[in-house]
Amino acid sequence: MDFAWFRDLGNLAQTGNFSQAAELGNISQPAFSRRIKAIEAWVGVTLVDRSKHPVALNSAGAQMLEAGQQALARLETERTQIREAHSLPDNYMVTFGAQHSIGWRFYPAWLQAFEDAYGPIISRLRADDLPNCLEDLRNGEVDFVIAYDSDYAQSIGDETGIDSVRIGDDALIPVCKRGADGAPLFDFGRKLSVEIPYLRFGANAPIGRHIEPLLRRGDLYGKLRVVYENSMAGALRIRAREGAGVAWLPRSLVGPDLEAGLMVQIGDGSMEIGLQIRLHRLRRNANQLTRQIWAFLSSRETVPLMARMS
């Protein structure tokens, strides 16, 4: 007995044609016909009425197909449960993918808050560019991806099978070096004879999509002159701290610099870009542990863990 026979029988019932059913099963028609005859020999009766066009299962064939499909479904369920039981929860490593700027400071604090509330888990972080994180999610190489959303841009569109839950908040704020007199080196409010040097995220950096609409809306392009580009928030932070120009950076990233007086936020509140930090999953790749984590976080979405810490 070969369980593939039941899939063949189901394909034949669906198509009513030996050639089309063989194509669905990715085998030749002669091989497919031999497999149908093999299951009939195993059962001991004819299962297919070949006198009809299209062909159809007779009552014995329909009965056997139903029994086979139920058995297959039960076996698949048992296999999944056995695999999860052997991999969870003691030794399964939950893998998070995150944009570099999230992985720098937000992620460690969020993970600690999560484990304090949920319980300890074995986990690791892959910090990478967002497109690579999403590709890893689709390939099943990470369990979750953490990314920014704002009123200006979403990290992931309405992609089928991907769910999202809010786990925190941040903001992109314009910052620059503090001068010797304590004032910012650059200020949008000053009347300057030259444009303000702008440290910009590279064209391929998704985080830049949150900033560009604000610059257009606020008519800031005429006041800014791009002097440096980089896709890494950490690289822009270093240049801003050195006094090379103004950059919009996550508050969570530059908080220590602001507190230490190394940098200062410039502009008013209209220059800030509110960010939601969202956790994404691919539904089809969920297992017992990641489903439990998802349910836990979903029940707390209105008050994210990081919000409760502040």
Q: What is the helix content?
A: 40-55%
* Morphology call: elongated
Q: What's the CATH topology name of the largest domain?
A: D-Maltodextrin-Binding Protein, domain 2
CATH architecture tag of the largest domain: 3-Layer(aba) Sandwich
Could you name the key traits of this structure?
alpha/beta; D-Maltodextrin-Binding Protein, domain 2; 2 domains; 12 helices; 42% helix; elongated
Commentary on this structure:
This protein has 310 residues and is α/β, with parallel strands linked by helices. It folds into two domains: 4-87, Winged helix-like DNA-binding domain superfamily/Winged helix DNA-binding domain (Arc Repressor Mutant, subunit A, Orthogonal Bundle); 89-310, D-Maltodextrin-Binding Protein, domain 2 (3-Layer(aba) Sandwich). The longest helix is centred in the N-terminal third of the chain and has 29 residues, at 59-87. Strands 3, 4, 5, 6, 9, 10 and 11 form a seven-stranded mixed sheet that branches. The chain is 42% helix and 22% strand. It contains twelve helices and eleven strands.
Q: Layout of SSEs?
A:
Layout: H1 4-15, H2 18-24, H3 29-43, E1 48-49, E2 56-57, H4 59-87, E3 93-98, H5 100-104, H6 106-118, E4 122-127, H7 130-138, E5 144-149, E6 162-177, E7 196-201, H8 212-217, E8 224-230, H9 233-242, E9 247-250, H10 251-259, E10 263-265, E11 273-282, H11 288-298, H12 305-309
Parallel strand pairs: 3-4, 3-5, 7-8
Antiparallel strand pairs: 1-2, 5-11, 6-9, 6-10, 6-11
Question: What's this entry about, in short?
Answer:
The protein is of the alpha/beta class. It contains twelve helices and eleven strands. Helix 1 (4-15) packs across helix 2, helix 1 (4-15) crosses helix 3 (29-43) and helix 2 packs across helix 3.
